[in-house]
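Predict the 3D structure for this chain.
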Amino acid sequence: MLAWSLAVSFTLAQGAPAPAPTPEDLIKKIDAAADVKGREKPFEISASLTRLYFSQGRTKDAQVFANEALAAAEPALKFYVEQKKKLGAAPPAPLADAKCEPEKPKESNLANGLEVARRHAQANRTAAAVTCARKALSGVPDVLMMDGNARFLARDYAGARAAYERVASTFDDVPEALYARGALLIDQQPDDLKALEQAKRDLEAFLAAAPNARQGRNARALLERTRAGLGAGGLSKLAPSPAPAPAPMLPALDPATIAAFQNAPKTAEGDARFARLIEDAEEALAKGRYQEALDGFKQVMPFQPENPRLRAGMAWTLVRLGKPMAENVWRVATGSPEALDALGDRLKEKGDGEGAKALWTRLAETVPGYAPRLEGKR
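Done. Predicted structure below.
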């Protein structure tokens, strides 16, 4: 293994001895090594790099490493699908019985597992082959979900949907992909009845498979509204939802990515970068470039979901875009009416006086108790 990949593998895949470098330190070192991208490396290294860059908001770089990881996993994915098809309706072998441990361990767990699975297949032990191949692919759904989320942030909605669909069609035990696909369909095709029907099936299947998942509340609210939209001929024909629950601002994120966001250290450099992203998004909002503004806010949302300024900007942008989730997100943002009020001030300063007045009027109507503080602004 190359020296750099050995260092990365110890740091990312196995855990570095204390004191561990921060993610920003790691990224600086990796960025300085010009031969990292494009150099052949085990799946686990590329997957760890995907997670590292995605957790730090470097989604374009994360996609590069995701593509490398998925290319390395492709033979195992193809083998797994073939063996599942061969197994048919029969159940895979229990993990305890499948004997998936390799005789001579290699540097890549995926390569190890695939080798064992192929030996089972050659001996016509298909159930064991499926079990061992699935174990070998344990990190692949996470990479596919991160790739889908990165594509969503880049407005590559077709690519995001393809990533979620590949997870849903390949793996029976990753219901988060169903939620992600359903939420994306609702967001992008709110009046396409065929898309809404598919979203309904996805949400129903997700809730059946994972009734206690963290996305359960949103999934049930989305499912109820989707059913109503199907009856009405489209979501735009429904009255605004009275439910106060916040709608998802991103498709479902995989557990490893959520943990990476939550554990990412707070640094002055990172905070400054997020502040600039919010300022740029507000500038686009004031100039009427609403999709650009939304894309900017989405880059910050996973890292600062409780930021009132971010919530205000996201909510008003969704209102201006007429998105189905706008009402719910606006209600969440009104928990900090001062932030919405301040956004109006910034919009006016940037030349969007009409938008500022519209925002203040809506705020006064939504939060009557705050209306006296808006006198003279509307």
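Residues 59-87 form the longest helix (29 residues).
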